[in-house]
């Protein structure tokens, strides 16, 4: 791989010709997805890094066999399903480090196009690209499809603004076996590149609902038999570790509502919930950050709904 760009051979796992120009039409169009306006208009988003791309292409393989190659999504073609992978690029170095990702993409019927690190640099908001990226159709689902009478644990983010926190909570929800994550319209864009990276691939495992209001979520959750709990330490609040002392039943199907990193849940949001629940602090820490508190609540609830 020491040849000059003009004579660089195509890696055996990749498809040529090598993309070298960051202003090539495909990369230029993909670069628009770094902005929320571009993602909203195109209903697509960028996925960067081996773990996230691996899960994206794995899901692609589960969707349906792909007869056409990635990137064939011009006008007049059949609409792609939610979460469909449209384009994949990798550097030869990334293909050497992560051959399993490239093989998984090929197994899902996708071409992985060879590109230089310089060409891919414009598709990342990090200091250095990890050398493997994909363009994917957004995959959020309808609220009514996940808030069913079979749902046992749902995670709701209301006015959560930090992409890293949102992604971490989504990852925890996936690990705890939650039925869905709901990201309200007042929260960060779940397809923000930093949010996507923070999920470490979990975005492709758990159903996600976006752009809904908390009142709508709370109303439908109650109608489907879920209790709506606010993670909020302001009294009156149940103690998460001894909920039975104040009559809280965590074995019931539950929708947890988590608020803003700085100010928590405003009174109007808390009023949408049935009860508030506080994580007890036994040491001298004044509080827990959002992702930590959410992790504790989600896992405590997951334990009880499985009893």
From TrEMBL:
GO MF terms held by the record: methyltransferase activity
Cross-referenced SUPFAM superfamilies: alpha/beta knot, L30e-like
Pfam families referenced in this protein's UniProt entry, alphabetically: MRM3-like_sub_bind (PF22435), SpoU_methylase (PF00588)
Renumbered residue ranges of the record's region Disordered: 1-40, 58-81
CDD domains: SpoU-like_rRNA-MTase
SMART domains: SpoU_sub_bind
Keywords, comma-separated and alphabetical: Methyltransferase, Transferase
GO biological process per UniProt: methylation
Cited PANTHER family: RRNA METHYLTRANSFERASE 3, RRNA METHYLTRANSFERASE 3, MITOCHONDRIAL
Similarity comment text for this entry: Belongs to the class IV-like SAM-binding methyltransferase superfamily. RNA methyltransferase TrmH family.
UniProt name for this protein: RNA methyltransferase
């Amino acid at each position: 791989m020491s040849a000059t760009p003009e004579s660089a051979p195509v890696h055996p796992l990749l498809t040529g010709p090598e993309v070298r120009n960051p202003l090539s039409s495909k990369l230029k169009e993909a670069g628009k997805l770094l902005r929320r306006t571009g993602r909203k208009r195109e209903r697509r988003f960028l996925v960067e890094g081996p773990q996230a791309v691996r899960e994206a292409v794995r899901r692609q393989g589960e969707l349906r066999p792909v007869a056409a190659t990635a990137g064939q999504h011009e006008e007049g073609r059949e609409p792609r399903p939610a979460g469909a992978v449209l384009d994949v690029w990798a550097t030869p170095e990334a293909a050497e480090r992560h051959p399993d990702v490239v093989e998984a993409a090929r197994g899902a019927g996708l071409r992985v196009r060879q590109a230089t690190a310089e060409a891919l640099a414009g598709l990342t908001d990090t200091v250095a690209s990890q050398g493997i990226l994909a363009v994917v159709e957004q995959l959020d689902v309808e609220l009514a499809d996940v808030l069913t009478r079979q749902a046992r644990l749902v995670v709701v983010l209301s006015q959560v603004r930090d992409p890293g926190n949102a992604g971490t909570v989504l990852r925890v929800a996936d690990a705890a076996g939650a039925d869905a994550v709901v990201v309200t319209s007042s929260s960060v864009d779940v397809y923000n590149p930093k949010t996507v990276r923070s999920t470490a691939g979990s975005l492709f495992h758990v159903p996600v609902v976006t752009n809904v209001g908390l009142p709508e979520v709370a109303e439908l959750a109650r109608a489907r038999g879920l209790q709506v709990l606010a993670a909020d330490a302001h009294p009156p609040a149940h103690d998460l570790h001894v909920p039975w002392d104040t009559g809280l039943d965590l074995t019931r199907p539950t929708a947890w509502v988590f608020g803003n990193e700085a100010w928590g849940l405003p009174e109007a949001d808390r009023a949408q919930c049935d009860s508030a629940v506080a994580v007890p602090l036994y040491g001298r820490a004044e509080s827990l950050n959002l992702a930590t508190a959410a992790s504790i609540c989600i896992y405590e609830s997951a334990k009880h709904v499985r009893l």
